[in-house]
Amino acid sequence: MSTEGMLRPVTTLRLTEMKQRGEKISMLTAYDYSMAKILDHAGIDVILVGDSAANVVAGYETTVPMTLDKMIYHAQSVTRAVERALVVVDMPFGTYQGNWKEALSSAVRIMKETEAEAVKLEGGREILESVDRIISAGIPVMGHLGLTPQSIHKYGTYAVRAKEEHEAKKLIEDARLLEQAGCFGIVLEKIPAQLAGRVARELTIPVIGIGAGRYVDGQVLVAHDMLGINNDFSPRFLRRYANLAEIMANAFSSYVQDVKSGSFPSEDEQY
Ligand code: KIV
């Protein structure tokens, strides 16, 4: 990518252009100012303020307890840091499934209070009216199909989705409906690579995969997972780029030892 390309803000239109010229899209999660700043400077295209904050920040088992107020707090922290990447905010469980009016007012709150550029919703035809109304109000929407963590209690498992033909057919139809409704992109989570590739080929909007193989238009991971901050979660699709848990644990125990032994602070580290 040219230096100019690195500096220009990423828009939903630019993501479509990237797909058209076969340039892969990079996307990672962030929930706070410091992480978002590092990601933005590293040249990430899209930052997702994911409701996975419920897991990796708050320690909940699922994303179900996440609230709109907490998502807004995380998103505000992220947008204060970001100059280039497109910031997409997850709409949390219970803020858009009821009816389109509730969905629209949740999306409007996110946009007005956070200055993010887009929202992401989980689901297909069940939430189509909400998607339609949010887009009609001028808010860019990203879809999310396949494994949809907010529905975990309906399925009872985080296993690979859409392996059966009827599920694959529904997923393809849902993806088409989301594109027709005007979504600027879709996340496909934990589905067979060939199916994800077929969806990416059929749609003109970018398809971003997580555990959906290599034939899609881009990839997203939870930053805490790929950094090895939380090593309890090791699905096959996750590539670890660092073992920060080890690096942090070593730094913390060195600090404890230095404080106990009195070697910190030294003469040079005091006034
Ligand atoms: O909340 C999240 O981090 C997500 C990604 C897994 C795509 O939705």
What structural keywords apply?
globular; single chain; binds 3-methyl-2-oxobutanoic acid; 43% helix; 8-stranded parallel β-barrel; alpha/beta; 271 residues
Overview of the molecule:
This protein has 271 residues and is α/β, with parallel strands linked by helices. The protein has twelve helices and eight strands. It has helices at residues 3-7, 12-20, 33-41, 53-56, 68-79, 100-114, 128-136, 152-155, 165-181, 193-202, 223-226, 244-261; strands at residues 25-29, 46-49, 86-90, 118-120, 141-146, 185-189, 207-210, 218-221. Strands 1-2-3-4-5-6-7-8 form an eight-stranded parallel barrel, surrounded by seven helices. Helix 6 links the parallel strand 3 (86-90) and strand 4 (118-120). Helix 3 (33-41) packs across helix 5, helix 5 (68-79) packs parallel to helix 6 and helix 6 (100-114) crosses helix 7. It is globular. The mean pLDDT is 96. Bound molecules: 3-methyl-2-oxobutanoic acid. Residues 29, 48, 50-52, 90, 187, 189, 210, 220, 222 line the site of 3-methyl-2-oxobutanoic acid.
